[in-house]
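#data-curation
PF: Archiving a pair of folding outputs for the training set. Convention for this channel: one message per protein, sequence first, structure tokens after, nothing in between. First:
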Amino acid sequence: MAFYQNERLALFIDGANLYSAAKTVGVEIDYRKLLEEFRKRGRLLRAYYYTALVENDDYSPIRPLVDWLQYNGYNVITKSAREFTDRDGRRRVKGDMDVEITVDMMNLAAHIDHIVVFSGDGDLTRVVQAVKDKGVRVSVVSTVKSQPAMISDDLRRAADSFIDLTDLAKLIGRPPREGDHDDEDEYDDED
């Protein structure tokens, strides 16, 4: 990873996409460590976390994380998600955050030197190219160490550098806790 101490950094985390990639490769993200790691690598100006929330739920498994992130240095951007049941009878949540990420990246591009995007979503390819045209370096974090790869080939090619999530695992991950089981809803960020 090529980072420079005096460069102005911003993180853009597609919550559902990062969650899926991390789950696929068995990494549990420690968001405190993630901030600390990137603060060491430059002048971290902003850390955005994007997620869709089901507003009518009495309890949302993502709500405690969102609350923690808001109190601990993240700019959390949320919107209402659409809930549906897939053909296998599973509860699914649909909430694409691409427009929100795109707008914020374009707005911040004039004030930063390096953007780190935590997503593998190919829909972000064009905004990555656009901020690069403004002189901003872009690194993308996702993984190719899964079957299939969790990153769009177009997005990976558009970025200045690609960082595999598994290479960051020791720096930003936490060891699995005993008795952990995953009962969170699955998120689908496609429209």
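PF: Second:
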Amino acid sequence: MKLLIVEDNPAIRQMMRRLVEDLAQEIYECDDGAEALDAYREVQPDWVLMDLQMPRLNGLAATQQLLGYDPAAHVLIVTNYDDAALRNAASEVGACGYILKEDLFEVRAQLQKTQTPPPATTEVQ
């Protein structure tokens, strides 16, 4: 799996990387939503872990741009803001999920769900 972490706080980026590094073969990072679309185009990640509050372009606008470029993109919002309006806005722009940074292990759980292979089928003879 390839991941793109879009987060303006270097300490949080590092924490997220450590949390998921065994799940991904490649992890890329950028520190602003304004860079997210170019990074996405370059690396074509399986998942984007997107912060909401960033200096030049917020995560909602960046998510909207990514999904405009690739409607099949998987964007998971990872934020400090536990706000119903923001959750709704994230869903409206097409984010696959909304996880609070205080629950970072939920990010891992979400990514693991996508890696689980389908159950093996057994032929009855």
